[in-house]
Every structure is written in structure tokens, then in C-alpha cells.
Protein 1
Amino acid sequence: MKVRVTITLKAGVLDPQGKAIEGALRGLGFAGIDGARQGKIIDLALAETNPDKARATVADMCEKLLANTVIENYDIAILG
Amino acid sequence: MRSAVVLFPGSNRDHDMVKALHSITGVQPTVVWHQDATLPDVDLIVLPGGFSYGDYLRCGAIAARSPAMLDVAKKAKAGVRVLGICNGFQILTEAGLLPGALMRNAHLRFVCKEVKLEVVNNDTDFTRAYAKGQVIRCPVAHHDGNYFADAETLARLEGENRVAFRYAEGTNPNGSINDIAGILNEAGNVLGMMPHPENLIEALQGGFDGRGLFESVVTSLAA
């Protein structure tokens, strides 16, 4: 089973890398950018075939390692 | 004073730390590999600076889950003094031994220079040798030293006098909230800080301002 974890900074946490990306896009002439936030994606290949179990295991992984919940949120998507 | 320095793959300030500890305590510290599940019985455990695991995932995140860190957590709970410098501070926050997180520097650049530190709390085992409010020189060298904590945690840290060091005189090099450079745990036996006191302990390095931190620990053990 393939599972995608998307990790993003919580609202209110300064994202200097997102700001730099935003500035660079403006520099290229792209207009109407209201913000850019950078996150990361981790794709996992699991032996588990039950989506609910996979989701629960990955949530545990996120809490213990993949995300720092002081500053980050995580989202789990089952890709199939 | 017996001390141990935990070595992670990617640590690079361990030699400076070993040299500083030897010079100040007169005893050669034990270097412990991160895969060792049990640390020796010592008075001070140090997590040195560097780039453990190449800063993969998040700075200090993978090192914080190593076997040695489980024992560091156990010993910290039992009252053993733990000092995390730079990457060591990042590891301590990732391990949950200190609150908050160290984020990418606000200006996004690696910063390697000397800053001024205000000793905010000198009533600790790590800062006794300094005067309260004393401003000392100290080098910094990091890319991810921007301390962040939510408002509630911050209020607690300030209210409980757990900010040990603050960047002084407009020298905040990384955007840290409240100019925080170093914090203590609730019990006061764990200190994490981004600056490198071990790099200012002898004439060759241009000063001695960092010695006080290590001398404070030695004094606290004798007390």
C-alpha cells in the first residue's frame, strides 16, 4: 500500500523559505501571489493492505518522527 | 568531574568539546557512540555541535531517536546534567527534553560569527560563574538556530526564569523569538544553547568567556 504524508508548517509559524520563494516568483513577474509556504512530502510503501490500519500506523510514525508537531501539521493520504 | 560526549554520525564539534572539557575539568571525557544504549555514569553529558545525519528530515530529528538518547533522557530525568550545544540543542528539542523548536534562520543564511550573550539567569548549575546580566562574547555557527515556541510555552519559559542566555545588544543572529539563545528544562539540569562556549576557552581562541559555563558545572558538583 502506498501512503503519502504531506508535512506543512503550522499557520503562524514563520516560513522564511516560503517567503524567499514568494519573492523569487514576484521577481520573475508573476503577479497576484498572496503567499507561498514550503512543506515536504514523504511517500511510504507499506506491506499493510488495510487502509485504516495503514493510516493509523502512519499517524503514529508522524507523531514519533516524521513531523515535529510543535511547528508542523501532517496530512495522510492513501494512494492505493 | 566525569563527563561524556555523545557522538552521532555527522557530529563535528565533538573534538572541540572533548578538548574544552579536558582542559577545564582535568579529566578526559568518555566519547559515546550514538548506538550505545547505555552511557557511563557521569556528572555531565554533552551533545556536541555538528550536522547529525546530515540534517535530514529536520535538524536533530533522527539523532534524537537513537539508542543513546533514550538513556540520555533516562539519566536527565534522574538529575544528571545534560548540555546540548548547537546541533545538540536541536537534538534536545527534538527528543522532547526541552520545549520549542529550532527553525531555519530568519534571513536564510548560515551564520558564523561572534555574538554577545546576556546571562539572564545566573542561578543555575551552568551559569553560576557569571554575574546576572553579564554580557559575554560567544561564537555562533549555524543555519537553523531560530528558536520558536508557542505563546504559552514562551510565557512559561520566561515566567519560570528558564531563559539562561539571550542574544544581547542587537546581536540576535537568527531571528529567535525573545532573542533566546539558551534555555533550561523545568528541573534546571538540562541546558540547550545555539552558541559555542567551548570555542572561547583559551588565549589561542581569542578569549575565555566560555570557560565560565564549564566552571559553573564543576562548582555545582563541589557544592
Note: Chain B has one domain: 3-222.
Protein 2
Amino acid sequence: MSRLTSYTSISGIEHIEIKDNEKIKFIFLLKNAISESITHYAKNMLREFYRHHKRRTTQTIKREILNPHSQWIKMFATGFLTLILPLSSTCSFAELPDDSVYHAESEWRDQNNNEITISALQGKVQVIAFVYTYCQHSCPVILSKLRNIEKKISSSDITAVQFTLVSLDPERDSPELLKRYMQEHDLDECRWVMLNGNPDDVIEFSALLGVRYRPMNNDKKDIAHSNMITVLDKQGKINYQMKGLNEGPEEAVSNILELVLSDIEGENTLSSANCPQTANN
Amino acid sequence: MKNRRLITTGLLGFSLLICQPILGQADQVASQSRKPTQSEMAYIPGGQYTPLFKDSTASPIVGPFLLDRYAVTNRQYHTFTQHNPKWSKDNIKSVFSDEKYLQHMNPLTLDTRAEAPVTNVSWFSARAYCKSMGKRLPSLDEWEYVAQASGTNRNGRNDPAHRQKILEWYSRPTGSLLPNVKDTPTNYWGVYGMHGVIWELVNDFNTALVTGESRGDTQLELSLFCGAGAVSSVDPGDYTAFMRYALRSSYRAAYTMRSLGFRCARDTNQH
């Protein structure tokens, strides 16, 4: 018992309760993880396990629920809890609600040509808009709306917020162009990120957020698109959408602040990779 | 005790091993890519096409591409969900589909309606199905290009009799029983049931920019869509195309309908 609790407090997981009826399921999953395709089952198992136990807040692990006659299961479970769970959080394994847009599995490049999956956006409140860099009409307005929102959030709260601009023209808007766009518009990499993805993933992400767009046949190859600003909570649920350009930033700001204060946990490694201040710490 | 430490070390190694693929976000959906036989896909040679809404004087060239002759059936879709449990009725995430997903699917459906087109699927799930077959959803232009063919002509748009026939279906309420896909009318390209059976999903449905709020109005909301003023319809007489555009423009990618299904397409150079 003492070994178990000391391990769990080291790993930061002090409040886990396992119910009797869940034990069978857990062991079953564990067995599958070993004998069947390890990747697939381990992923599901972790997710399952997290879902059941992460939210409980009152009790420590009850040793007696582990089968006293089966030493190896005890050992394995101890190892599992102490080693895999903390690791799983490093692998950004927060439990996602069913309506999280991070269930999509798309892969993107940011302005520094770093590869990121869409789920890597979780852990921060995301303020998302779709733009393209040579857009001269509504995109500058969208950008100024976003900066307006940014200015209204205090420096302590802003660390939990990220502004994400998704390119609607991934073929022209290379990561280099995105980088230049950010520099030209003086967008701080600690808080802003621009994404370049393959066209199929752009359409999927736009569909997840209800954004519509249509490449035009004019000379400049403009793209008609929704001027929508979306606020996602830390787990990727759509919280608020500003649908036109006539609305003020107040509602968006109050929604963002509410989400910043919410205690949903999650990891975000994206901004720290691009942000010199954080990287130095 | 020493033994225990050894095991713990082993476990650390093991957990690192299984964490590795998680970090890489390994794609566990196995692609069941296979070659289409002549009978299941129709070859559509490239052609000029005038979309209902156009934004320039030039008409886009569509194709060449391959299109499924038949809409995807209940049986085919059920097999897909068995191989890809993520897309089964029980497992689908609400972000990918509303709660009516596959609500008609039960053992009886699979027994008696196996060859009828599958409906109650969302755009996300239809895309996943096509992907698993090594295909994709047709684009809006591709679908409309094939749909404008009558039984005898590659462009039946100006054939009043053909228009009338289609319009009659669109004005009929959806019957409770959908016909088998092979029992639906075929058109010039040998593609079955483009009209008269179900609405069909296209990949870029969200390029239809008519706002859902302004009913019957094809003017675009200028404050909502950048550059929208340049898009206008060219053929106000094509009612059924208007209806399809109206549906697409109010459609959200997670919606399902009991009259909405799909078929897949594929590029000709991809084998």
C-alpha cells in the first residue's frame, strides 16, 4: 500500500478510485493490450481508463480490489498506474468529449514548418479563423477583430489563449509565407499560430467549425469564405462563434475569459515550441 | 525486492514502447483499397460544364474521373462499420454525426433492404467510407456534371421533358421504402439513380454559399462572405439544381437525413 501511494503521489495522481466491477474490464483490456495489437488497444485502454478515473476526486487506490492471488497483475497494475498514466498525460491524453473537434486526425504544418496534429491545439482556449495571406477584403478585418479580442484579455489570462489562423489556400500559403505574414502583421508567436494543411484536411476542419468557402475563378484567385471567428474550449468543444463582422468583441472576450478559468486540464506543447520566452524557462 | 525493481524497469520500457506509436498518432483505420471493376464505376470523360452559380465567364472543365454507378448500399455500409468500429452506430462521436446516425439500420434492414441505398449518414462518415475504399466523395461540380445527363444525352438540362421528370420527384415526399440501387433509372453515362431516389453528399458541399437564413433568396450575405457579390446564378429555370444548392447551403457536415446518401468517386490516374 505504501509503495502504491508513494508512487502515485510522485506521478501526481493521488486521487484515483477503482470500482470492483471496473476491475474486470481493466484486466480484460490489459490482457488484450498484451496479446492483441498493442498500439490499438493500449490507446483505447488508456482513453477508457482515463475516462473512468481522471474525474474522481475523493479516494486513493484501494489495494484490495487487485486480485490478491495474482501477483503479476498486482505488479503490472502498479507499474501501469505509476508509469503509463503520467506518460499518457505527456502524450496529451486528456479525455476528450464526444463533440470535440480534436477527434479529427488531421496533420498540419505551422509557420515554422513544425508538424502538428490538430489535437495538439488542446489545452488552450483557441480562437480560430480561416484566412489566406493575399486576401485584401475581409481577412484584414478578421485580423483586426482578433487583435481587438487579444488586447482586451489581461496578460495573465492570455497565456491560456491561442489565436489560430488556418490558411484556406494551403497550396499558395506555404509555411514560409505564413511566417512572413506573421512578421509583417507583428503577430506574437507565443500567442499566434498559422496552419497549413492539405486541402482535404482544410475542408474537414472548416466543416467541423461550419465555415464555408469557395475558390473564385477571378484573376487574383480570391476565396469567398465565411467571416467566422470560433472560440474552442480547452478540449476542442465549440463554445462561441462570431458569425459576421458586425459584432463587437465583448461577447467573445467574456466567453474566452470564462473558459480560461475553467479547470479542464490538458497539455499544450505547440506554443512553447514557437515561443522563445517559454522555451527559455 | 530486487526482482520487483527489475520488473518495474521492464514496465517502464514497455510503457515507453506503447507510448511511441501514440505520439505518432498512428492511423489504425486500415485502408481496404481495391481496384474498381468495370461494373461498379463509370468512366466520365472530361467535359465543359456550366455550374448553376458561376463567378466568371469561363466554364470549368470537369473530369475525367470515375464515379460509382450505384449509391452505396446498406449492406456495403454495414460491412464498413464492422471493419471500422469507430464509425459504427454505437461508437460514432457526436462531433461527426447527429443522433440519427444509421437509425434505420437493424437486422431487418440488412435482411430485406440490404441493396437499398444507405441513408442517415453524415458527410464525415461518408468521406470515411470512400476513403476506406481508396476513393473519395465526388466534388459538387463532378456530381452536377453527371446529374445533368438525361437517359440519352450528356446534357439534358435543356430537355423540358427530362427536367419535368426530375421536378416531379423533387415535389414528392420521401417514401418509406427506397428501391434497390440497381432498380433505379440509369442515365447517359450508365450511372444509376442520380435523380429520383435520394439526395447525395458531395465533398465540397460547403462551397454553396447561399445563406440558410434568407430563404428563397440567392443573394449572398455580403457581411458573411468575402467576395460573395461576385457569385450569381446563371440558370434560374433549373429549379431542381436550386433545391440541391439550397439543401447543401443549409447542410452541416454532421447532419444526417433519411433521404440523404452518397456514392464515391475516384481520380482516373489513381490505381
Note: Strands of chain A lie at 107-110, 115-117, 125-131, 161-167, 192-197, 213-215, 223-225, 229-232, 238-242.
